[in-house]
Design brief:
The chain is of the alpha+beta class and about 140 residues long. The protein contains 2 helices and 12 strands. Strands 1-2-3-4-5-6-7-8-9-10-11-12 form a 12-stranded antiparallel β-barrel.
């Protein structure tokens, strides 16, 4: 019984270390976001980081933006570039809707056309990768 419980704990722990896949609208893999906030391209090269405090960094650890607890997205100068609402609506700094992050991870533009998928990724993280900061 102890071995069984230990096996379940190990499998459960391993599942949290895997990266969530970022996909295009045609389901091609464009990158990954690991549970620790590391952003990788499709070749697994690190292109950025989202820290637990909301700081967004490029691959050289330079701060390029911030995710605030209320869903506000700011650039490195603390100017607001957009908002992610609790319902998944993504707005630019003028409050115009530019997209949606659905509960199932589907990412849509303002016309409700699917532009990608980010299943299992936090809404704010998905919005940052699809709409606000372009990681190369």
């Amino acid at each position: 019984m102890k071995k069984y419980i230990l096996s379940i704990i190990i499998l459960f722990s391993i599942s949290f270390t895997y990266a969530q896949t970022i996909q295009s609208s045609s389901y091609g893999t464009t990158g990954y976001i690991k549970s620790d906030g590391t952003i990788q391209n499709s070749s697994y090269s690190t292109v950025g980081y989202i820290k637990t405090d909301g700081t967004i960094q490029n691959s050289s650890y330079s701060t390029i933006g911030y995710i605030k607890s209320d869903g506000t997205i700011q650039n490195s100068s603390y100017s607001t570039v957009g908002y992610v609402k609790s319902d998944g609506t993504v707005q630019n700094s003028s409050y115009s809707t530019i997209g949606y992050i659905k509960e199932d991870g589907t990412v849509q533009n303002s016309s409700y056309s699917t532009i990608g998928y980010a299943k299992g990724v936090k809404k704010e993280w998905a919005a940052v990768t699809f709409f606000f900061f372009h990681f190369n």
